[in-house]
Amino acid sequence: MGNSKEEKLRKQLKRYEQYRRKMDEEELHRDPEELTDPYAYQARLFEERWNMLYLNRYGRFEDNTSIPCKRYTVNPAPYGGRKSDTLQVFSVKVAELTGGLQWTLDVFGMVALRDLLDHNRNIIFKRERESIFNTDRSRAWCCVRWSCGL
């Protein structure tokens, strides 16, 4: 009776040791960015996946559209063009501050959308860290055109 309990414990210990070795091995090959900046890590994985799936058809993930806004408003669309619903962004509003954020906010980064026309980025907000956009409670709304410097 005692032997079967010992055997069972030995098997469990062996499985646990195998599991620990596997986890330690995976930890050695883990991307350090996954731990230090998980959002940047996820963004990089998304970009790599986009390029893997769509590079040949639509171009690189970071490609910006070359089609100017309102391109087909006055001039007719090329042959085969069709009418479709669109979205035009005029402003962005900070609706709520969470996670310890307080007014005044120094905003930088990029917000971009993709459309069916060319699947490239349509930038609606872009500010470098050196050129931040300061906003306070009275300026919670920001005009997208102005904030991009267009």
- Quaternary organisation of the protein chains: single chain
**Which range best describes the helical content: under 10%, 10-25%, 25-40%, 40-55%, 55-70% or over 70%?**
40-55%
Shape estimate: elongated
* Rounded mean pLDDT score: 81
- The tally of beta strands, per DSSP, is 6
Structural class: alpha+beta
Low-confidence region ranges:
145-150
Tally of helical runs? 5
Q: Report the biggest beta sheet as strand number plus sense, adding barrel if it closes.
A: 2 strands, antiparallel
Tell me the Rg in angstroms.
Answer: 26 Å
Widest sheet: strand ordering: 1-6
Termini, distance in Å?
82 Å
Helix-strand sequence: HHHHEEEEEEH
Percent of residues in beta strands?
15-25%
Description:
The structure is a single chain. The chain is 41% helix and 17% strand. By secondary structure, the chain is an alpha+beta fold. The chain has a domain at 84-150. The strands form three sheets. It has a two-stranded antiparallel ribbon. The protein has a two-stranded antiparallel ribbon with strand order 2-5. A two-stranded antiparallel ribbon has the order 3-4. A hairpin with a 6-residue loop joins strand 3 and strand 4. It comes from Panicum hallii var. hallii. InterPro entries: DUF6598. It holds the Pfam family DUF6598.
